[in-house]
Specification:
This protein is an alpha+beta fold and 166 residues long. It is built from 5 helices and 9 strands.
């Protein structure tokens, strides 16, 4: 599993931006916008996932205050994510991982065997700094558990503090 101190696995995937446009997104090409908050969620239009993404939406000012850029990531298609973002007024980009390359690279895949759905994202949050390093990692094996949003914000905020001279 990807841990604090590891290099964030680089990727290129479709991104639905806040205007509903779909474009290509490469993590390594967006490190200037760091800290980056990568919020993996199992599926659009499900109860806890909608609550989680709407909580990030509602707390976006807090993330902007610490200079963080938030992205939601799921295995849904870009078109599904566009509709999900529109219906919920999301104010951050959503990354589509239909090929499940990101859930594999970040080792956050899980199965809903009872529903016949394989390799969806576990609920997980990673904060990536401007050097591409993971500075915060939280992964839940229980899809009904939401992240500690204040801890995510605090982790992203730590990256904005000037480093002290030794």
């Amino acid at each position: 599993m990807v841990s604090v101190g590891d290099d964030a696995p680089d990727f290129t995937a479709p991104l639905t931006d806040i205007d509903g446009d779909i474009e290509s997104f490469t993590l390594s090409e967006n490190l200037d916008d760091a800290p980056l908050v990568l919020a993996f969620f199992p599926a659009a239009f499900t109860g806890t996932c909608t609550t989680e993404m709407c909580t990030f939406r509602d707390q976006m000012a807090n993330f902007e205050d610490v200079g963080a850029t938030v992205y939601g990531i799921s295995i849904d298609t870009p078109f599904t994510l566009t509709e999900f973002a529109e219906r919920n007024g999301l104010n951050f980009g959503l990354i589509s991982d239909t090929n499940r390359e990101l859930v594999d690279a970040y080792d956050v895949a899980m199965d809903f065997a009872s529903l016949g759905v394989n390799r969806v994202a576990k609920r997980a949050v990673f904060v990536v700094d401007g050097d591409g390093e993971i500075t915060y990692a939280w992964v839940s094996d229980d899809p009904g558990v939401e992240p500690d949003y204040e801890a995510v914000e605090a982790a992203a905020g730590k990256l904005e503090e000037p480093s002290e001279a030794a």
